[in-house]
């Protein structure tokens, strides 16, 4: 049962070097409906590097939820808003790590024939 929804704006940049790939991003989330008046900023990076046993994936994310001083940010919505952001962060982290690991593996396997 949903209380509200989020409008999200996302910008990212990918950097590739010989032995690593880095993705940096910035995302703004603004609450709608029952989350109106709630807002969050997220900044992060993920780095994928080969290692002797596979790949090393490092992730750093800062997520800052905020409440605008307005009658539109009801107190009961703050905790569900925070949990929704946390769940999105966990899902995004797993998706990005999987995607970047596959991209790195594709790069390693380029030119290898079976």
> What does the main sheet amount to?
4 strands, antiparallel
The helical percent reads 25-40%
The topology string of helices and strands comes to: EEEEH
How do the strands line up in the largest sheet? 1-2-3-4
Structural class given helices, strands, pairing?
alpha+beta
Mean pLDDT: 81
Rg of Cα set: 18 Å
Q: Which consecutive residue ranges, at least 5 long each, have pLDDT under 50? A: none
Gap between N and C termini, in Å? 50 Å
- Domain count, please report it: 1
Shape: elongated
Strand content: over 45%
Strand elements, count: 4
Q: Counting H and I runs of at least 4 residues, what is the number of helices?
A: 1
Put the structure in a nutshell.
This protein is α+β, with helices and mostly antiparallel strands and about 110 residues long. It contains one helix and four strands, in the order ββββα. The mean pLDDT is about 80.
